[in-house]
Amino acid sequence: MSKKIFDILPPEKVKKGPLFKKEKKKISEKHKNITCFSKKKRNLVFIVLILVLVFLSCYFTLSKAEVEIWPVKRVSTFKTEITISKEINQLDVSNKNIPGEIFEIEKTVTEEISSSGKALKENKAEGIIRVYNVYSSNSQILIARTRFVSADGKLFRTPVKVVIPGEHYEGGKLVPGYSDIAVKADQPGPEYNIGASSFSIPGFAGTARYTKFYGESFQNMTGGFKEEVSKVTQEDLDQAQETLEKRALEQNEIALKEKIPSDFILLKGILDSKILDKFSSAQAEDELEKFNFQVKAKSTALVFKTEDIETFAKEYIISQISKEEELYQESLKLNYDLKTIDLETGKISLSLNMEAKIYSAIDQDELKKALRKKSLTETQIFLENLPQITKALVRFSPFWVNRIPENTEKIKLKLNLD
């Protein structure tokens, strides 16, 4: 059988006919408007839905309530006696014992004091003169206080009895006898500090001995003076002691208070100061322009911690009030009356006076639960009927909130105790 062959054209050469053409549909203007309105409506609904969700979210997230409460309160006083001792290591509320601590300090105060007294200080000039005897071979006794007058008229005396040897021969020659004797001016003063001079003995005046007994000095007379000098008086010593003792005690107390840490309490009257020693470099009547005076003092104090006494007071007051009451700790006031003190043993006894505000106890967690979802009016009525509350103020936020939130964490309670 013979086969029939057909021509097959390549695909790219095949031309699409009208059957393959899509005809675009024409949309009417009315249909266009309906479609546009539908889209806007859907958008508006979507926006409203978003706003509602945002509002609900804010309502439940941001809503909160603040309730300020004025509880029933009273001011009460309490009094008890306590013992503070350095032998106690920790607070013992049941036995009313509080640990104490001893602080000590020693201080020495020294000052140079000017003498206030005045004295006339004077001295007589002294020296050596050689007294000659050319009167005879016999010695001559000169009694104590024998007068000798210098060439310029200055009077000197020998303080003791002296003997002037007589003339004698030396190498076949007659020589006068002599003796070197000490003399002292009859009066004090620098004018008697004369140089080398000749001397006569006025006691022999009018006799042959006057010219046969004479003296000579070969060196200056020295030591004569007359001047006003400063002198230490008993009043100077007494005043120095009083002033320095007072200063030493004051400085000691200041230094001791600076040494005590700020968290300790030092009560008035529990600081003891005493003078340990005093020393003066001079005595009364000493001729000195200035002298040193020294005082040594010691101060001792028994102190206790502020925290301990406040803890004791709070625990003591709590033990004295009912379980339905609480202590407003910030209102606590303390004062003390010193009963006994013995710094030697480190023990003191105090009367402790306490004053504080006591208020009715409020279970805040339970109160928050009771307030949930209440309106402003319901909240106020509920709080006014509570016997432990005298006044209450309720605030909602944000502005659209009109009920207490159900979540207790969004309820804030504030106690007003002032």
Describe this protein's structure:
Among the domains are: 30-61; 102-116 and 231-303; 120-228, no CATH class. The chain is an alpha+beta fold and 418 residues long. The protein has helices spanning 29-62, 209-212, 234-259, 306-320, 364-371, 376-384, and strands spanning 64-71, 73-85, 97-99, 101-114, 117-123, 126-133, 140-142, 147-150, 155-157, 162-164, 168-170, 173-175, 177-185, 198-200, 213-216, 225-231, 264-265, 271-280, 290-305, 325-342, 347-360, 389-397, 411-415. It is built from 6 helices and 23 strands. It is rod-shaped and about 180 Å long. Residues 1-24 have low confidence and may be disordered. β11 (168-170) and β12 (173-175) form a beta hairpin.
Short description:
With 418 residues, the protein is of the alpha+beta class. The protein is built from six helices and 23 strands.
Q: What is the spatial order of strands in the main beta sheet?
A: 6-13-9-8-14-15
Overall mean pLDDT score? 88
Outline the biggest β-sheet.
Answer: 6 strands, antiparallel, barrel
Instruction: Label the overall shape.
Output: rod-shaped
- Beta fraction: 35-45%
Distance between the termini: 125 Å
Number of helical regions: 6
- SSE series: HEEEEEEEEEEEEEEHEEHEEEHEEHHEE
Tell me the helix content: 10-25%
Computed CA radius of gyration, to the nearest angstrom? 60 Å
What are the low-pLDDT stretches, counting only 5+ consecutive residues below 50? 1-24
- By secondary-structure content and strand pairing, the structural class works out as alpha+beta
Number of strands: 23
